[in-house]
Amino acid sequence: QEAATKPNVIILATGGTIAGAGASAANSATYTAAKVGIDKLIAGVPELSQLANVRGEQVMQIASESITNENLLQLGRRVAELADSKDVDGIVITHGTDTLEETAYFLTLVEKTDKPIVVVGSMRPGTAMSADGMLNLYNAVAVAGSKEARGKGVLVTMNDEIQSGRDVSKMINIKTEAFKSPWGPLGMVVEGKSYWFRLPAKRHTMDSEFDIKDIKSLPNVGIAYSYGNVDDTAYKALAQSGAKAIIHAGTGNGSVASSVVPTLQALRKDGVQIIRSSHVNNGGFVLRNAEQPDDKNDWVVAHDLNPQKARILAMVALTKTQDSKELQRMFWEY
Ligand SMILES: NC(=O)CC[C@H](N)C(=O)O
């Protein structure tokens, strides 16, 4: 009878450090990711059963740097199936932290549900001293099972904070305080209870025009990194490999070196979409026609999306339109 009053939360496991194991408790940085199965992870946190009726599903078991577009689609489809089920109140996804921000943003764009979807990882394997995975997972289940988390888009619970899956990014690879948003967290989880302070302003989930059920495959979109003395080799190679769009991971406000500008103009004339983003560490802010004449060049700006998030939106957007003005609208709205 008690079970009937608790929310039903499904944990979809994909691997990462939260499922990692090292040789000794002193190994906080040297270990193997994606080793421990979801049933063992759940059994390791018996307190989960006080929060929700929890069931686990092993969707894949990989380190997240190896996640492919096919993996993203597979995960997205499973999330949608579960979200459609009236027996499911919330979904948690355990994930490696290297590309967690990409998966969280992808799900933000394509899942048509107001049920909580929470992506979670850890910075230390469960075998390490002061492992952070147990509490991160406990917090994820608490948020996924809560009514207040409904309609707030895809969320990420790391280091006691509730972050927007759209905004959050891995900012450092050694601290447990690794995930930050340039615009701040949405809330906090303390002792299994969530405290909210702000809401996402961009279109997401229920309000999104994209739907995982309509997406058969994702187009090839690549990223080229900018730096002093850069040349156009990477851009040309991406175009030759069939990229439909190239994310310019630009310096500063998405600035483009004079050695690269003519190549990007020519690639755009050949039909490749050029999307200017910034790789500055704390979050870029790229505006149209500032620094480069985007109207004249028919380029798109990624605004505050970092290069890896810009790739996700570009892929999803290109399943709907090939028009650069439509792409730009989407980059403002999502
Ligand atoms: N902290 C982590 O999860 C990193 C482990 C691994 N590189 C991954 O992303 O899966």
Spatial ordering of strands, largest sheet? 2-1-3-4-5-6-9-10
Please summarize the sheet with the most strands: 8 strands, mixed
In sequence order, what are the helices and strands, one letter per element?
HEHHEHEHEHEEEEEEEHEHEHEHH
What is the CATH architecture term of the largest domain? 3-Layer(aba) Sandwich
CATH topology of the largest domain: Rossmann fold
CATH superfamily of the largest domain: L-asparaginase, N-terminal domain
Rg over alpha carbons: 20 Å
How many separate domains make up the residues? 2
Helix content: 25-40%
Low-confidence stretches: none
Strand content: 15-25%
- Ligand names: glutamine
GO molecular function, one term: glutamin-(asparagin-)ase activity
Domain Asparaginase/glutaminase C-terminal: 220-331
EC number: 3.5.1.38
Protein name: Glutaminase-asparaginase
Short description:
The protein has helices at residues 2-5, 38-43, 48-51, 69-84, 100-110, 133-144, 233-240, 261-269, 294-297, 307-318, 324-333, and strands at 8-15, 53-62, 90-94, 117-120, 154-158, 161-164, 169-170, 179-180, 187-190, 193-196, 221-225, 245-250, 273-278, 300-301.
